[in-house]
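example protein:
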Amino acid sequence: MIPVRARLAAAITRAARTYWRVHRNTHPVTRRIAGLAFILGGLVGFLPILGFWMIPLGLALVADDVPALRRRRRRWAARLLRWAHRHRAA
């Protein structure tokens, strides 16, 4: 059986790969609109399907287009990916 940390590390790696694919292939205005939509959807997170998980995703999408937030998001992502690399299944 695969440990929980290894599964979490694999999920983080897949999410990062998907995030960069979306970032590379979309226009900045589209990312901003999608980010704001995720944030607004997250504010009504008590409803089915919409959830509070949408807020950080929307902030990450918007942060890529704001230089001051971009540095913080990159640092956070680098730390998270280092953790995932250390804890992935051998």
